[in-house]
UniProtKB/TrEMBL annotation:
Gene name, Swiss-Prot/TrEMBL: acpS
Enzyme class per UniProt: transferase
Organism for this UniProt entry: Nocardioides baekrokdamisoli
Intracellular or extracellular location(s): Cytoplasm
Protein name per its UniProtKB record: Holo-[acyl-carrier-protein] synthase
Predominant subcellular localization, coarse grouping: cytoplasm
One Gene Ontology MF term: holo-[acyl-carrier-protein] synthase activity
Cofactor(s) required for function per UniProt: Mg(2+)
Amino acid sequence: MIRGIGVDLVDVARFEAALSRTPALLERAFTPAERDLPLASLAARFAAKEALAKALGVPAGLSWHEAEVTSGGAPIFVLTGAVAAAVGAGRVHLSLSHDAGLAAAHVLVEDPD
């Protein structure tokens, strides 16, 4: 059964401006492994974290670092802490895209079978 669906869209130029205005955002929002990625990939990962929060109903104690996006092909979340607890034994599906100055993420969270 589907527990939640989240979608987020990020304007890459606006995201770049936010990073320029607030350099600490890079460390606050991304794990060390994510920080060296190209700007469009960072924007897509930011969208993924926002979409996950929406799919979970923004649980208390949510930390950006507890939802790292990795890819060795299809993107996946590596969840820890409060985010992992909120998902429990459920499955999380993630789709990312970036083109024409926009980055999008779709997240679907399933309850355990």
